[in-house]
Amino acid sequence: MSGTRVDRGRRRLALGAPALLLGATVSGPVSALTTTPKQSEGPFYPRNIPSDSDADLTVFNNKRAPGEVIEMVGRLFTTKGQLLPGGRIEIWHCDVNGVYAHVGRNTPPGFQGFGAVRTDSSGAYRFRTTLPGIYPGRTRHIHVKVRGANGAALTTQMYFPGEPGNERDGLLRRARNPAALIARNEPGPPPRYVFDIVLG
User: Fold this and answer.
1) Residues 54-66: tens digit of each pLDDT
2) Where does residue 170 rank: exposed (0-12), middle (13-18), buried (19+ CB within 10 A)?
3) Among 21, 78, 175, 193, whose CB has the most other CB atoms within 10 angstroms?
4) Hey, which bits of the chain come out as E strands?
């Protein structure tokens, strides 16, 4: 997004996030959490971080990206169950045709392909984006890079529940705990995928 539209969009995201995450909250402290499994960064991390890299990936250069709009939400934890405010969450993924925005091939004009946010005071984050496409050899997924305010870092991938390709995806199958990488789906609109992240 850009210009005034970015400001309005960011205000909507900031104001809406607490209410949207109510369904993902827990009562009381959480303890003895297992670190989210690491996954490879892959070859498609942006060579140059785009100037437009906010939490709303559905609009770029005042054009709307094609595809189904979804929300990706979650919270950032330590293994002791402490919430981590101020952590940086980056995501990147391919467009509806399975093409990444920065690899020298044409993508739709409205496709942003990369976004970054800081977790809020409750450790929560939220992105609005479009459902990624699928390309040969991989199931549907979103790349995630995390750096906590405490210095801990993690690169991983989020997968979608119920995808036929999940059983055949080598990276997912080889993960230490594949179930921890598959988001929980909540009905929309738009559909919401909850992906809590635990930093070691």
Assistant:
1) 999 999 888 999 9
2) exposed
3) 193
4) 59-60, 63-64, 69-78, 88-92, 114-118, 124-130, 141-147, 153-159, 184-186, 192-194, 197-199
Residue 171, SS3? Answer: helix
Amino acid found at 64: R
130 contacts 57 by C-beta, under 8 angstroms: yes
What is the identity of the amino acid at 38?
K
> One-letter amino acid identity for 36?
T
- CATH code of residue 150: 2.60.130.10
> Taking the model in full, what pTM does it have?
0.84
The residue segments making up the domain with residue 153 are 3-199
